[in-house]
Design goal:
Among the domains are: 113-277, Rossmann fold (3-Layer(aba) Sandwich); 371-439, no CATH class. It has helices at 123-132, 150-154, 173-180, 182-196, 210-217, 238-246, 266-277, 308-314, 371-375, 382-390, 394-399, 411-415, 422-439; strands at residues 25-26, 32-36, 46-47, 54-55, 60-63, 72-73, 78-87, 94-102, 159-164, 200-206, 224-229, 261-265, 284-290, 298-303, 322-327, 334-335, 349-354. With 440 residues, it is an alpha/beta fold. Helix 4 (182-196) crosses helix 7 (266-277). The chain is globular, with a radius of gyration of 22 Å.
């Protein structure tokens, strides 16, 4: 069977056996939650509650500020205990967060009104529901989901693609969602096809998940197809999956709708289903808690705002000497400074790495082997970009070598025999270039 794929990429050790056979568990509700007002790409939400105020589960506590922003809802029934600035794990700077203390008396729901038959709803009504529910991309990118459909309200697109690749090593929550919430995911896809006017729906799943492919194919129709993707990283990246599934190339700086496509994660489709059918805002999500440093790796549904340390305790704590705790996967995830942060809408995994045996291998000079060039899924020359950056030729790195097209997937660093940390270099260079440009 021919597998759909893209040029470039790497195949790191998958490490999914740690948690892939663990059914999704519902985690207990913590006594206290911490919700960052910045939960997505774009502007942070604007708080509309105050200290001492009682809130219900699903109640909006912060409104969106502009199009590229989402509202925030309380995941629990309780009392606003505190509003303060804390270190944001993604932004890496102090940002506002709201602390909610859970009410021990029980839960009171304040959901949106369910839409019984979405086929009778207008595109605008469904677009508004996705916005009102505060849904963002749950694969990790956290782009506000409603914003992807603005152009489709003017002109219908051709295809909605659901990303079921889950190409990051260790992570298995999307796999379990596809096994356990299959019908709901497909129903969510139908909603997204309706709101965008798309005639076709595609769900792409890597071929290392045959059970998920088999389950999803039970729901195939003339308009919805399941395709098997070659297991390769970063198969789930937006431009790479669109090319693999359709053969269409999204130009540098362009959005997928420019080629008639919108892409969402399978877990995002499930959140859309709940928002429409149940009126439930995005107040919880699936998370994989895994790694050699976790005693009992598992997949859980956890409230947004749940402390990371409580997630780790729920999995029976650490084992071995901990090296890193990562939010997300090992390739594009973010290493946390400590476990005092909390689960966000974009938290797909909590990965605990143990300290490796022996001394770390030091970075060596580039030997011009070209491995990074072959691995780059964006058809860039990482070795050349590093040389330009180290010689402080930032303009040339951007304008000639395409630095801003780099999606920081880490394929170059993974394949490098000299252990050069390309991604760190590129991230720093982008910040320097933006700062220099801002002064002009």
């Amino acid at each position: 069977m021919a597998l759909f794929t893209f040029p470039g990429g790497v195949h790191p050790a998958e490490k999914k056996d740690l948690s892939k056979n663990s059914p999704i568990e519902k985690m207990y509700t913590p006594k206290q939650l911490m919700l960052y007002l910045s939960q997505s790409i774009g502007a942070p939400s604007e708080l509309i509650v105050e200290v001492g105020q009682r809130v219900k589960t699903g109640q909006q506590i912060a409104r969106n500020k502009g199009i590229i922003s989402v509202p925030l809802h309380s995941p629990v029934t309780g009392t606003v205990k505190e509003i303060k600035k804390v270190m944001h794990p993604v932004q890496q700077k102090p940002m506002e967060a709201v602390i909610i203390e859970t009410d021990e008396k029980g839960e009171e729901l304040d959901y949106l009104t369910p839409i019984e038959d979405f086929s009778k709803s207008s595109n605008q009504e469904l677009y508004t529901r996705i916005l009102e529910a505060g849904i963002v991309g749950l694969g990790g990118a956290t782009f506000p989901s409603h914003a992807k459909y603005i152009e489709s309200l003017k002109k219908p697109i051709e295809t909605v693609i659901l990303n079921g690749a889950e190409c990051e090593p260790y992570l298995t929550i999307d796999y379990r969602m596809m096994l356990e919430k299959t019908a709901e995911i497909v129903e969510g896809l139908k909603v997204l096809m309706k709101v965008s006017g798309a005639k076709n729906g595609i769900i792409g799943v890597e071929d290392n998940k045959p059970e998920a492919i088999e389950e999803l194919r039970k729901f195939e129709t003339d308009r919805i197809k399941i395709i098997a993707l070659k297991t390769k990283y970063p198969q789930g990246a937006e431009k790479q999956l669109i090319y693999a599934a359709t053969g269409k190339k999204v130009s540098v700086g362009a959005f997928p709708f420019s080629v008639g496509v919108i892409m969402q994660n399978v877990s995002t489709a499930f959140a859309v289903y709940e928002a429409v059918k149940l009126g439930k805002p995005l107040i919880e999500r699936g998370v994989t808690i895994t790694g050699e440093g976790i005693k009992s790796p598992k997949n859980v549904i956890a409230k947004v705002g749940t402390p990371v340390q409580e997630m780790i305790d729920f999995s029976d704590g650490f084992t071995g000497e901990v090296d890193k705790v990562i939010s997300g996967g090992p390739m594009m995830g973010l290493a946390l400074k400590d476990t005092s942060s909390s689960v966000m809408k974009g938290t797909s995994g909590i990965l605990v790495m143990v300290k490796p045996e022996g001394k770390p291998i030091p970075e060596k000079p580039c030997i011009n082997c070209g491995y990074c060039v072959f691995a780059c899924p964006m058809n860039l020359e990482p070795n050349y970009m590093v040389k330009l950056i180290k010689s402080k030729q930032f303009d040339k790195a951007v304008e000639e070598a395409g630095l801003m097209s780099c999606m920081e997937c880490g394929s170059c660093a993974y394949s490098c025999p000299s252990k050069i940390d390309h991604v760190k270099t590129f991230k720093t260079a982008k910040r320097v270039y933006s700062a220099l440009k801002g002064r002009k």
